[in-house]
Amino acid sequence: MRGAMTAGALASGLLVAGGALGQSVVLTGLSGQAATFTAAQLAATPHASATLKLGGGRSEDCAGVPLTLLLQRVGAPAGKALKGPELADLVVVGASDGYRVVLALAETDPMVSDRKILLADRCGGAPLPDNEGPFRLVVTGDLRPARSARMVTSIQVRRALP
Known about the structure:
Helix content: 10-25%
Strand content: 25-35%
Number of helices: 3
Distance between the termini: 11 Å
Number of strands: 10
Largest sheet: 5 strands, mixed
Radius of gyration: 15 Å
Mean pLDDT: 87
Shape: globular
Structural class: alpha+beta
Strand order of the largest sheet: 2-1-10-5-6
Order of helices and strands: HEEHEEHEEEEEE
C-alpha cells in the first residue's frame, strides 16, 4: 500500500506541473489499482446533478460523475459489497493547491447514504473556472462547502484500520 500512496503522490505532483496533465485526476485504490481520467473522459461519463451550498445562503447547481462510480473503477466496493472492514475505509481527495479532505467510503455510496457526492466538471451551467477546476468535489448535506475541494488532482482509497 505504501507504494500506491507514493505513486499517487507522484502522479499528483506531475498533474500540477504539467499543463495538459493538469486536466486530469488520478484515482488510486487500496491495492494500488490506478486510473487517470482526463477532462474529456470525465465529460463523456454519465453525469448527475447536485446543488452546492455556498456561503451567504447562496447555492449553485453542479453536474459531475458520482464519486462512487469512479471509485469502483479502482476496485472500491459499492452497494451490497460495501460491508464489514470496508466500512472503515477512507477516501482522501487532494487538490493542486495542497488542500485535502477526507470522506468515509460508505458516505459515497447511495445504498448507505442519501447525500450526493460528485466529481463535478460544471457548475452554473458552465465549465469550472481555472481557480475552481477543472474538477471540484461536490458534497451535498454539508452546511458549508468545506469538503467541496476545488482543483482536484487525486483521489485515493485508504484503509483506516490495520
